[in-house]
Fold this sequence. Notes:
The complex is a heterodimer.
Chain A: H1 4-18, H2 22-36, E1 39-45, H3 51-59, E2 76-79, E3 85-90, E4 95-97, E5 100-101, E6 108-109, E7 119-125, E8 134-138, H4 147-157, E9 169-174, H5 179-188, E10 201-205, H6 208-211, H7 218-230, H8 233-236, E11 242-244, H9 247-255, H10 258-268, H11 272-279, H12 282-287, H13 295-318, H14 325-336, H15 338-351, H16 353-370, H17 378-390, H18 392-404, H19 412-423, H20 429-432, H21 441-457, H22 463-483
Parallel strand pairs in A: 1-8, 1-9, 2-7, 9-10, 10-11
Antiparallel strand pairs in A: 2-8, 3-4, 3-7, 5-6
Helix pairs in contact in A: 1-2, 1-16, 1-17, 2-16, 3-9, 9-13, 9-14, 10-13, 16-17, 18-19, 18-22, 21-22
Chain B: H1 20-41, H2 45-59, E1 63-69, H3 75-83, E2 100-104, E3 109-114, E4 127-131, H4 136-139, E5 152-159, H5 162-165, E6 168-172, H6 183-190, E7 196-202, H7 209-221, E8 224-230, H8 238-251, E9 257-260, H9 263-272, H10 275-281, H11 283-294, H12 297-329, H13 334-352, H14 357-394, H15 397-445, H16 488-494, H17 507-510, H18 515-590, H19 593-624
Parallel strand pairs in B: 1-6, 1-7, 2-5, 7-8, 8-9
Antiparallel strand pairs in B: 2-6, 3-4, 3-5
Amino acid sequence: MSTALSELRPLLERLRGAVHDPSAAATLDRLAARLDEPLIVALAGKVKAGKSTLMNALIGEPLAPTDAGECTQLVTWYRNGPTYRVRLDLKDGTSRQAPFQRPDGALEVDLGGTPVEAIERMVIDWPSSRLAQVTLIDTPGLDSITTTNSARTHAFLGTEGDGEGEADAVIYLMRHVHRTDLTFLEAFRDDTQAGASPISALAVLSRADEVGACRLDAMSSARRIATGWRDDPRLRRLCQTVVPVAGLVAEAATLLREDQYRVIATLAALPRADMDRLLLTADRFLNDRDCPVTQVEREELLERLGVFGVRLSISLVRLGAAPTASALATELTNRSGVNDLRNLLTTVLAERRSVLKARVALAGLDAVLSGLPDPVYDPFRLELERISASAHEFTEVHLLNAIRAGSLALKPAEVDELERLLGSIGAPSHERLGLGPDADVREAVLDGVERWRRRAENPLSPLAVSEAARAVARTYEGLLASSR
Amino acid sequence: MAPPTTPTATAGTATAGSNPLTGVRRDLAGALAQVRQLAVEFGRDDLADRVDRATARSADRDLTVLVVGEFKQGKSTLVNALLNATVCGVADDVSTIVPTIVRHGDEPSATVVYRATGDGDARVEERRETVPIERVGQLATDQGNPGNREGIRSVEVVLPRKLLQTGLVLVDTPGVGGLDSTHGAATSSALGMAEVVVFVSDASAPLSASELDFLRTARSRCPEVVLVMTKTDIFPSWRKVRQANLDYLATSGVSLQILPVSSLLRQRATAESSTELNEESGYPALLTFLRDAASGETAKRGLRTTIGDATFVLEQLQAPLESERAVLEDPAAAAGLVAGLEAAKTRADALRSQSAKWQQTLNDGAQDIMSDLDHDLRMRIRAIVNESEAALDEHDPVDIWDGFEQWLHQRIAFDLASHHQTMAARADALAARVAEHFAADEAAVGMHVELPVTPIGSRHIGSDLKIERPGVSGNALAAVRGSYGGLLMFSMVGTQIGIGLFNPISLLVGLGLGRKSLKDEKKRQLMQRQQQSKIAVRKYLDDVNVEAGKVSRDTSRTIHRDLRDEFAVRAEQLQATIRDSLRSAETGAKQASAQRQERLTTLAADLKRLATVQQRVDAMSAVLGPVTG
C-alpha cells in the first residue's frame, strides 16, 4: 500500500530539481534530509516542569544541566552520533564546535564567550542506543520570567507565527494543567494539514512525586490525576495520552552508585522513630546531628533523589524489596513511571514515524510552494493537494480528531471501538482491536470491514458519518493486509 | 513595608496577646454598655438605640484576608493549618472551586449560599442553607461538587478562634490556574474586597511570569500583601527559590515579605502540642503578620467610628445637664439661655426639614449617581460587545474560542471592578459633601458636635453588596462589607458561554466534495459559526448587564437611603437634645433656692459620671493615635 510519505518523497525530489531559488532549494534539502533522520521529539513545558531531569532520565546520562533555577537557556538537541561532539549553530548562520567537560558526570559546555542570545541552538552528538530511534530536544521553559526564554521556545516550536516547527512530535510536561498550557498545545497543533493532532503530542504529568506531597503513595495519587486528565475532552483533543513520571527518581535510578546504596541501607537500619523524625522534612534530613551518615552524603542523596526518592528508597530497602544497588535502581525506575513514557516513545511514536514525517513533509512543501507564485509550479501544487486529500493516514488523523472532539454522531460503543482502533495507531493489531494476544485477529478485522461498510452505505447515516465509516472500513482493510 | 532583602526577620514586633487593638476592642465594648445605660437612665431611648447600632456595627467590622494563588499550591491546607481545623477540602486530586469564608463566632456553623438562577418566572432567588461543617469540604471542591453543579456562590463558616476574634475573615479561593482558569479573572475582581492578600506559591519553583503579574496587581490594589511559600518540608532547595523570588520581586519593583511555611509541620505541631515544631513550621511569623494587619489603619478606622458614636451620645446627654446647671448657678442668665435655645430649636427643625441644604445635596447627588452609573455600565458593556464582534468577525471562532472566552471573562471582570471603583468614588464624594453641608447647617444650630466623616474606602464596594449600616456618623460607608460582592465573578465565570455547537471537523464532510464546493461549504460554515458565537456573546453580556445593573442600582439606592436615614436620625437626636435642654433650663429656673443646691450636687455628680466615661473613651482614642494616611 502506498503511504503518503512514499508519494511525497518523489514529489519533493522533483520539486527540488525544478526550483532555482537558492533559499527554497536549501529548505527542500533540509526537508529531504529530515525525512531520513530519526524522529525528532521535543520536550516542552513551563519553567521548572522538570524537562532537563526527564531528558536525563530518558537518555540515561546526566547530559542536561539541572538545578533549582532556570538553567536551560538554549534549545538543545541530543542526537545519536558516532562521536561525542557539541556544536553551536549561531543566529548568523555559522556553526562551530564547542569544547566541553564532564566534571561530575554532567555536561559543561564552554560557550567561548558567545552570548546566549546569539546562539540559535546547541547540538549534542552523543553515541547512545537510546538516541538511535529518536532525537530529543530540550527547550527553554515557557512562561518564564526571563521572557526571551519563552520567546525562544515559541519560535522554535512554531507556536507563534508561521512555520512548520522543527520537531515531529512533542512531549509536553505539565505539573498542573493551566490554561496557558492548553493554549500552548492548541498552538502546537498544525492547522495547515492534520488539524488538531493528538497524533503528535504526548503529555507527561511531571514531578509526579511532588503531587502527593512526597508521601510513599504519591505515585498512585499522580496516576489518578493523570487518568482524570486523560478523560478530559479538552486534553483529549490535544494529546494522545497522559502519563505520570517522577523524573528525579528515574534520573537518580539510572545513576545510582554502590556507595549511595550503602548510605540508604545504613539509614534504613535506623530505629523506626529516629527515621520518622529524620524523614519528616528536608531540612531535618539535612541537619540532624545524631545521624549515622555524614551531612555531605545526605545532601548528595537528597539532591539526587528528592524527598520522595529518599523516602521510597529507604522504605524499599527496609522491606527487603531492594537487596542490592541494581535491584533498587530497577525498583525505582519501575515506580518512577519513566518506562511507560519510554515505551510510548519507542513503540507508539516510532511506529507513527511515517505519518509524522509525512505531516512535516506536507507542511514544508506547502510552505515552499506558497512562496513560489510562478504558475510553472501549479502541477506541484495540484499533486500536493491530491496527496493530502487522498492519503488515508491523514483521513485517519482527521477522524480521530473528530471523535475526540465529539463531533460525529456515533454510538458510545462505536466511539470506544474507533478510539481504540485509531487512537493506538502504532500498537500491535490485537491491541488496536481490543483482543487478547492469542485471539483471531483476522475474523475481527473482517467483521469490522463488513460492519463499517454497511454503516457507510446506510442511506440514513448522515453524510459525515458515512464518510467516517468508509474511512474506518479502509483502516480495517489495512489491518487485514498486515495480518496476512 | 519591609525591604525585600530581609524576608522573615521583619515580621514586626507585636506578638500574640500584645496587640493594642484587642485591648481597645474589649474596653470599647464595656464603654458602650455604660453609655447605653446612661442614655436609658436619662430617658433618651433614641440614643440608646444609636449605641445598640454602633455595637452591632463594631461587632461585625471585618478585615478580609483573601488567600489566593495558582492551582494546587496548598491554599486550603494553609487555611486549615491557620485555623487548626479541617474546614476546607484537601486532597492530592481535589481542588477548591467555591470560595469559602471563615469568620469568628462562638458557635461553629456553616452556611451555603446558592446563587440566583433562571429568568422571569423560572427565577429562583439567592438562598442560604445551613449545613454541617463536615460537609463544607465536599461542597467547596470539585470532588463533591464537580463543575459547581450545585450552583454555590460561596460557603460561609463560623468558628470560635482567637485569631479571628480581632475581626479577621479568611477567604479561601479557587486556584487561579487549572482547567477552569477563568478563575484568574474572578480572583482579580475579588481583590477589590480584600484588605489583606495572602498569595500562596509553593517552594518547588520560583514565581512564574503570570504569578508575578498577579502579585503586581494585588500590590497596587490592596494595602497588605504577603507572599507565602508553602511546602518547605519537601523542597530541599526552598532557600534558593526564596532568594530567586526576592531577586525577581526586587527587579520588578514589587516590595513584599516572603514567609516560608510548612503546613505539614504545623499540623504535626498541633497534633503533638509541640511549640518547637510550630516554630519550625513558619506559621508564627504568618500569624504575626496577620495580627499586625488586623491592627493596621483599616481596623483602626473602624474603631474610631465607634468611638465617634460614643462621643456623640455622651455629648447629647451632657448638653441638657449643662443647660440646667447654668440656669441653677445663675438664674439671671436663664432668660438669655432659653432664648438662645429657642433659636437653636428653630434651626434644628429646619435641619430636619426636606428643604435643608444637605437634603437637597443628597437627593440631587443620589439621582446623578444612579444615572451616571447606569451610563457607565452601559458604555462599558457596549465597548466589550464591539470588541468581541470585531474579533469574531476577523477569525474563525473555533480557532480562537478558548482564548477569546478567557479574554472575555477577564475583560468583564476588569470592567466590573472599574465600574465599582467608580461607584465607590462617587458614593464617597457624595457622603463627604452631604456631611459637609450637614455640618455647616449643624454649626448654625449652635450645638457643637464633632462629625468624624472618613472616606468610604473604595475597596469596600463589591458588586452585589448590601449596605447594611453605612454609619455616616462614623466612616460613611466603611461598614459596607459582609456581602462579599467581589466573589460574584467566581460564579459568573463558572457559567460557560453557551456555544458547544461548533463542528470543527465538518471538513471531513468535504473530503468527498469538489474543490469549489468544498470552499463554499467551508465559507458558509464559518459564517454560521461567527453568527452563532456573536449571538451567544451578546446574550451572555446581556445577562452580565442585567446582573451588574441591578447590583449597581440597588447599591445607589441603598447609599441614598442610608445617608438620608443616618443624617435624619442625627438631626432628630439633635432636636431631642435641644428640647431636653430647654426643658431642663425651664425646670432649673423654677427651682426653689432650697432645692437648688441639692439639685446642683446631683447634676455635678451626673456630669462627673459622664465625664468619667468620656475620659475612658478619649483614652482609647489616644491608643489609636492620630489619623494617618
